[in-house]
Amino acid sequence: MSKHILAILCLSAICVPAAFAGVTVTSPSNGVTLQGPVHVAATANTSCSKGIGAMGIYTAPGVLAFVVNGSTLNTDLNLDPATYKTVVEAWDNCGGASTTPVTITVTAQPGVHVTSPANNSAVSSPVNFAATATSSCSKGIGAMGIYTAPGQLAFVANGSSLKTNLPLGPGKYNAVVEEWDNCGGATTTPVVISVGGNAFTNLQKSGGWAIAGQGPPNFIDCNPCGPQISWSMNQGVNSPSLSGASTQYGIGGKGPYWDVLFNNHLIGDGSSQGLPDRDHSLVPTVHNFTYDVYFYATNLGASQAIEFDLNQFFDGMGFIWGHECRIAGGNEWDIWDNVNQHWVPTGISCNPVNNSWNHLTIQVQRTSNNQLLYQSITLNGKTHNLNQNYNPGIAPGWYGITVNYQMDGNNQQSPYTVYLDQLTFSYQ
Predict the structure, then answer these.
(1) In the CATH hierarchy, which top-level class contains the domain 111-195?
(2) pLDDT tens across 131-163, in order?
(3) For the residues of 49-61, what is the DSSP string, one character each?
(4) Is 92 left (phi over 0), alpha (psi -120 to 50) or beta?
(5) For the chain: N or C, fewer Cβ within 10 A?
(6) pLDDT digits over 395-414, tens only?
(7) Beta carbons within 10 angstroms of residue 408's beta carbon
(8) Alpha carbons 308 and 208: distance in angstroms, whole number
(9) Which residues, including other chains, have CB under 8 Å from residue 141's CB and lie 6 or more apart?
(10) 199-427 — its CATH code?
(11) How far is CA 164 from CA 118, 137, 156, 181, 425, in A?
């Protein structure tokens, strides 16, 4: 899949320095403790006659969480509870840079935070529920519970966290996760789910994965590819893992900007799941898809992007729902335009957490008039609705439904690894 090469900022460590007046951060205050999202506002000025080129926010060394062109910065960052030694940096057009450090502590907002299942997702039984709760009550949280329907308390656990697998029959559920504090208060978070039997679970440990490299300028699949790209895929990893059998994916090489694609044919031609659909009675009837996965990395700052794709091919049409989490170039989700063959920025931030399991749920649909509908992206319990339509591409000779995971190399082709676990693909 073709890519747009992102512009790389000239950092002060490798450029000729220019005189700089400095960066003024008006929000947040240094040393403040606050609840997310964190509003960051800053301005910069310089003696460089060419002015300011860009400004950015580092939430940790090497972790560029946000970047914007020009001499002003105004954005909201979704940050997990922790203490952050953030740095706001400005780069001028003469090769200079200036920084202002701001230390902040982010605390959790009171309420129920559901990490699984994603709201409005299609899941299979048993349904994994995971949630935490916080309260302003000084006595803390007493218990948490799951209602699968009004008045139907299906599960309860003591304390401020909840994790269980609930066996549920097929159908739509207007579930509610509730917490009860020790001061007599309670808060709830609704979770709408559709339970069906059409799902492939733990695909990360399945057979049938094919691997190919892709490189600029045309990003054509190759295997082998030469020294520009190297990769690895190790299944059955027990640490880090949620299921006891995660898969480690790696990328390296001499690049730059080379990618590695991991692809699995689920239904139709070359099916790894025993569903070849030789009479073409299944693939054309499927319209709704959910890509649900947990991923873990310790060095995401080395990644240009990580990509999660769902694909459907029949009758000469190609439906590629591409979702790219750009790490370099601004931590933003892009989606794929099939007809024009390029990435489209969504304006939705993508800030996965290092050294932690991140839960991603993607929902898409092929509409009744054969358009690609991007419905929603949920990362670590935060759902963003897209509701964007695109036309399909042309794909003669292809037939089936496939799932992709892709890793993109940066300008130095820095090596990095990502672990996937509990990869579930649901279809209806």
Answers:
(1) mainly beta
(2) 999 888 999 999 999 999 888 899 999 999 999
(3) TT-EEEEEEEEET
(4) beta
(5) C
(6) 999 999 999 999 999 999 99
(7) 25
(8) 17
(9) 133, 134, 135, 159, 160, 179, 180, 181, 182
(10) 2.60.120.200
(11) 15, 25, 10, 20, 20
